[in-house]
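Checklist before submission:
- one chain only
- standard amino acids only
- sequence pasted in full

Submission:
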Amino acid sequence: MASNDEWINLNETSFLKAFNPLTDLIKKRVGSNGTNYIFKNSKVQLSQGIDHYGRIKYSNEVPTKLKDDLVQNNYDIVFLHQNKSPKENYIIKLKQSDIEQKISKKMGQKEVGPVFKKTLPSPFNNKNDMFLVEEFLAYSDGWHPIYSMQKHIRKHYSSFADSFGEMMSVINNAGIMYGDDFWKHLYYNTMDQECRLIDFGSSFFSNNPDDTNYELDKVYQFIDMMFHKRSADSKKIFDSAYGLD
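Returned file contents:
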């Protein structure tokens, strides 16, 4: 369910005791018979500018020394809970913005983001902060971050661009601008040929056409980077699915 090089069992780290307040809360509020993992960026991803979740830079939750150790070893304040019975998988991450919960819930309901489950009050220093609990887009269910399957997506650019256009149409027509890096946060399901975005911490509400146009400019830049010679065809497919033609 989890990639072994990205998700490290907390029991196998030196951080376990420091995160006991959170794991105790997870046991009470999320699942009592599962395993907890902490996310670790690979050096290859970081060398490509891919800081997959990027939550740790927003965190004042943990002691400075612990945070420094986490940063030095490429960890993030993002956790995966794999519950044994019932068999469920949840991402648990620090809230990034005041409206993230509302947007994440809405996007999950519209099936363009992970299903939002609940919030957990911070068990650490800052009682005003909270952790968000949401569905984990599992590899075993066909979900993959696009940076991990570039050859497949470029080969099947038509189905990808179509799904990408439909997804962005749903998001923008809901009056929401994603506002973040597609390269790091876009997932594609090879079974269902569907796109979803994770991490709505930089998203915001807007019906301003200038914001929509700026978002679409970022989309086209991403398509140019992703598809190179196929970018013109990919943009046409995206535009049709988005409703621009």
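Reviewer check: The longest strand covers residues 75-83.
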